Prior knowledge:
The N and C termini lie far apart (about 40 Å). Helices cover about 45% and strands about 10% of the residues. It is built from 16 helices and eight strands. The relative contact order is 0.12. It has two domains: about 5-15 and about 200-430, Dehydroquinate synthase-like - alpha domain (Dehydroquinate synthase-like, alpha domain, Up-down Bundle); about 30-190, 3-Layer(aba) Sandwich (Rossmann fold), CATH 3.40.50. By secondary structure, the chain is of the alpha/beta class.
Amino acid sequence: xxxxxxxxxxxGGDQLxxxxxxxxxxxxxxxxxxxxxxxLLGIKRVAVFTDRxxxxxxxxxxxxxxxxxxxxxxxxxxxxxxxxxxxxxxxAIQFAADDNFDGFISIGGGSVMDTCKAANLYSxxxxxxxxYVNAPIGQGLPVPGKLKPHLACPTTAGTGSECTGxxxxxxxxxxxKTGIASRSMLPDRAIVDPRWTDTLPPSVMAATxxxxxxxxxxxxxxxxxxxxxxxxxxxxxxxxxxxxxxxDMACREALRQCGExxxxxVNDDSDHEARHGMMYAAxxxxxxxxxxxxxxxxxxxxxxxxxxxxxxxxxxPHDEPICPHGMSVxxxxxxxxxxxxTGCPGRHLEGARLLGADTQGVIASESGDLLxxxxxxxxxxxxxxxxxxxxxxSQEHVTSLAQAAVTQxxxxxxxxxxxxxxxxxxxxxxxxxxx
Length: 435
């Protein structure tokens, strides 16, 4: 890729990039073919993961009818926790291990799909829980073999988990998110029916939609795959390999659609064109960051969502405090992009333009501020809180947030410029409020 300026070859750097994606079935009515797709994968007795809110929707009944109509034997696990923890993962793993399932179906948002991935992993290849968790928090051991078939059916427009081999959770011991990443966890099928978005509350549409934006922006502005040392073995090439020409393609179309549709989708639940467009954008973003990687905004988000103590957003369960993942990312993003711009100013400018910002006359060095201001504008008109203070944090929390975020090396190592703990301290200060 020496012909592309961003991908100049470096001594000892990788010259190859990989493309690993789920097989996607997209469109209204896709859920009606769920049972057929599962049967084609050889599944008979299937664990169906969901949460209690999704299980009450009419489309869930349609999904179960499709599963039973294909002569499958489903067992429903509907106690998935929104924003899962290591404890909720362990409970789901025990459910999967206690039966003899030959396949898995997840019907829900990222929390459901990630929980299902973990249940499939640990019930197929049992190990100490921290064995597969990303280093340095966990051991980061490779998954030793294939998993059972998994069909992922997203019901929100943002996480892209149906197209990634990543499962994220709150590790209660450290009050911070971390995750497991392996190509083995990539779902075999992504069954994406945009009709699920028709009933999403505006707050959920906003939080998940900004997650899709964040995935695409971070993958577009991640450091290039050529800057990463070439692996000694092909199996050691990480999924989060850095920006590459394939992920760039998906990022650009995802951002264009998000710029066109997100605000409309949040503010008018009858705008099916916008909501269905956001579902497609979310799937594209999942493919993009699943093969490129995320960086600073996601790293900053993990302590925020793990340590929230008194925030109860509309549209989410109110039995305990919660900062939805996409929201925890976007409240940090404007500060992050003002910082990362020096690493690839042209890509920050491109991201702003794709989202709909007026870039005429803007020089590249100003693009971080332009992108940040455009995100802030979108946040305000969609009801996103004003920075991390809007979800319950103050100046007194900044030091502990920075100390927690610096452990997220899988993410920070993908940023287009180095990030120190002192940088994170300044960034959280900047992220307290924007307007």
